Predict the structure.
Amino acid sequence: MTTLIEARCTVKLVAMQAGLEGVVVAETRLSEVDGERGRLVVCGHDVEALAQRCDFEAVCALLWQGTLPDAAAHEALRAALGAARQRAWARLPALGDALGASDAMEALRAGLAHWRASELEVGSLKIELTAAVAVLAAAWARQQRGEAPLAPDPTLGHAADFLRMATGQASDAPRAAALDAYLVTAADHGMNASTFTARVVASTQSDAVSAIVAAIGALKGPLHGGAPGPVLAMLDQIGQPEAAAAWIAAELAAGRRIMGMGHRVYRVRDPRAAVLERAVERLQASGLRSSRLALARAVEAVAVASLGEQHPERRLAANVEFYTAVILDAVGLPQALFAATFAVARVAGWLAHVDEQLATGRLIRPASRYIGPLPGDRVAA
Ligand code: COA
């Protein structure tokens, strides 16, 4: 007779094989992803509303303290992040060859590993690490171009200063606002792979620097934060809307995945793709044209139709990375810095999750299903 537990396990296993199930590993007050309806709620706010009325500092406060800051608290956090960027910049000469890596994420991982949690005050740790990720990513971009890193300007907002440090161009309000919209949109997203990684490390009562370094390693992969670079490369290869159908068909025939399409949780278009698409539209309305928006929309339409034919059982739609590529390109960031820019945003979420996990005092220890031989089994030679 099948017991209740066995029945539950069977349901779970079937669901996992179908790729439908997210095994619950934590309770969180930080963000909720509704994959069926295409909704992302961050600390009680829809991501669309946050991207319209908040900057990155406000979302940091929301994630770290649970409420949006009043004007004075917002100003204090903005100033604290600016001062922390200056401290991070002062450490660059002591990082050895960390920023010499040809991959931005490798540089970020190696650079950040120089920070020591034991030397950071608990109260300012999140600010110091959030500032450090932006400074390291921008410095890497400059160094790659053979240029000296630019010192932070603590009077600017985090997005504007990161953009200025990374591109070397004076900050302008429309581009800073577009990047702010991106950083807000990407700051947290449920139990994604890098956030899970950060929480696993925190759950062992290791330290926040170790958790963030590990999360950077998880974010680096092309199935997670590494997708926007290949999306831009795809748009460049396609070149014009009329070429999209043949290009996508050839990729699918070769068994390759279309980058920026599909999601483990969303069964509809990722709501963040729409937020970023609108942010690029606003940028265009301000006079800064994105050469790739029209092409991206055409490629998305073709990709959705082609994937729908190939996978009628599973709706594959645009994910956040599709329009991340368009918006980061439009604000002037180089393709090689896209994944690291994701980290500039997501570090805010990782740090909030580290705190939340530490507060539980519980070790995350998932189970695996053993499918190997048992002692005494006959193993085929
Ligand atoms: N292009 C082509 N086919 C895709 C696809 C894509 N972008 N995404 C999924 N599929 C197909 C798979 O090949 C698989 O087909 P099969 O059953 O014939 O083997 C089927 O859809 C299910 O894929 P699976 O890998 O089980 O789904 P998943 O939930 O694990 O995948 C992603 C989620 C994000 C890893 C996947 O959609 C993907 O690789 N996307 C491209 C990378 C990307 O944009 N990453 C950023 C995510 S925010």
Q: What stands out?
A: Residues 19, 223, 227, 257-264, 307, 311, 314, 316, 319-321 surround coenzyme A (CB under 6 Å). The longest strand covers residues 31-34. The CA atoms of residues 85 and 135 lie 6 Å apart.
